[in-house]
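Quick one:
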Amino acid sequence: MAKKGAWIVFATVVSLLVLLSFCWPNLTQKIKQQRADTSLALVNEWDDLVVFAAREHRSLPDLLDNVKALPVQIMSVPDSISPSDEQLLRGKGFVLLWRRPEQSLLPLSPLLRRIQEGDGLFSGGEMVIGYPSRIQDVAGVIMARNGFIPVFDMKGQKGVGCLASLAGRNLVKCHVLEARELLASRPALWKNRLLRAVKERWVRLLYLNWSPALSMAQNIQFQREVVEELRNGGFQMDSRPRFPTWGAENISPFRFKGAFLISLLSPVMALLLVMTFRSLSPVVSFLLVCLLTLLSGVVVHGLGASPGTVLGLVPIRGVKLQLVVPLLFALAVLVRPSEWRRFMDSPIKGKHLFWGGGAVLIVLAVYLMRSGNFPLLPVLDGERILRDRLEDFFLVRPRFKEVLIGHPALLTGLMLMSTNRFKDKVWLDGRLWIFVGLIGQISILNTFFHFQSPFSVCLLRTLNGMWLGLLFSVPSFLSLGYLMSRGGPKSRR
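Output:
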């Protein structure tokens, strides 16, 4: 059995290396393009400036000069803006981003005629501008005027795929700091969120509404601090950002399916590695498991990275399954056939189903609801501040699921298994701990499923999780070492 498992692990590694050689050119192109793309633009809202100028008795031309000096070079304006205000903005050197309400009953043609060289156009509703009947007209005008259309970060719109096929090189990924999020003064959280969007999700257009909780001077100072941070990070302010493309513009759906299949099977292969090479030390086994998962993650990222996935044009389906299915596969490897038979033959009372099933459902629900960009269990402000502090210290914040749960549990299970003193005791022979430890390996693969993130961010996040997981496992190692020296846990007579 051990020989068979060794051959399976060997075949898995060879297969991953072959796949890596296949997708390596695409991965390197993405890395080079993301490093080279340092252009970034800020957008302000014209209506906000009008309100603040009236509130603080400032003239609009003076306020526009202050904003222009930040530099904000793009101004978002409604399609109903007067010609005199439009002339004022163009005279100050602003590029206009035309905003059209989705429920607008006004004809689209007059708005398209107002678009000039370099202008942008968007709808803030559930559908892209012009969808479905006028989308070709919109794309044609934008391309003829060398304009741009924002694609909103983490917000899908109907028709965006059709628009991309018509004017793909005129799209730019945009992150919005919306007005409803600015009612309470939280400039530190806002700044970290914007920086994260630019550095980790390839956003190149920041749409900044003004906060009513801040004064005019404070709003300007906030944007100035954001610009300084971004410039220190190597980004340059540009009035016409463009989303770059590379050779993998149309990736086959089979590549996504292959990446998804690897993410399902890789944790099981890591588990098979653990069960096959039991004689290795716990730390060595842990590092080998993480390296196998890391190799799988690199292949997944290389297979799935494309301009479409970076922009969010291609939906990534099955992420929740990727978090759960490997755990179900792991049960088939960890639980022996004799144990399954004993369990199936044992009498089960209603209270067992109620309490046991309820506990499993609660743990599974929390596990799933805390995952994703929009978790159902929201991140509290205190946790968000802690995340920002960790990100400042480690450059890329490791995932809590790896550092606090997955990696320590896996190391604990490997140490218990290496002692070989608690056979047939699922709580003490290490298998239950190893099962929980797979959460860390699944989390690593999930990190590389973020195709919009720079490859270096995914890699550094994983490495930070590995060494911090080892550090957080020290108390467990010391406790188990002490128990072993005392003869292990005493069983009841």
